[in-house]
Write a structure and sequence with these properties.
Elements (H helix, E strand, L loop, with lengths): L4 H11 L2 H18 L5 H31 L13 H9 L1 H26 L11
Helix pairs in contact: 1-3, 1-4, 2-3, 2-5, 3-4, 3-5
């Protein structure tokens, strides 16, 4: 089985299409960080969904521009023109890694926010022995 599209796509995304993916990751993480401190569940989930959508679009744009840049170099290899698998997978399945990454970040930030909430309200933090 000669299926190298996933590794090729990750390589393209990191080497040629990093601009879109890194900016979208930064914007998405800022949205998740801001949203994890909100009290209403609907607001937190809608901001998480928006962040996933932004990262997904950034991945799609990063792969698309990455393949175009790879094909535009002088004497590109033949593999540069076999771009049917990678962008297709990112287009239809790119939401999954975005959801896992941003969902994990939201969970960790929300847990930290819950632990810091009593300190912010002027109450001393509870120790494990109940004091």
């Amino acid at each position: 089985m000669k299926d190298h599209f996933l590794l090729e796509t990750i390589w393209i995304l990191c080497s040629y299409g990093a601009g879109y993916s890194l900016w979208s990751l930064l914007i998405a993480l800022l949205l998740v960080a801001w949203g994890s401190g909100r009290k209403r569940v609907g607001v937190r989930m809608s901001l998480l969904g928006t962040a996933v959508l932004i990262l997904w679009i950034g991945l799609i744009l990063g792969v698309e521009t990455g393949y175009r840049a790879w094909q535009g170099i002088p004497e590109p290899p033949q593999e540069a023109f076999s771009d049917t698998g990678g962008p297709f997978v990112v287009l239809f399945m790119g939401w999954f890694p975005a959801l896992v990454l941003l969902g994990g970040a939201h969970f960790l930030l929300y847990r930290c926010h819950l632990k810091l909430l009593p300190c912010a309200a002027g109450q001393p933090p509870k120790l494990p022995n109940g004091e």
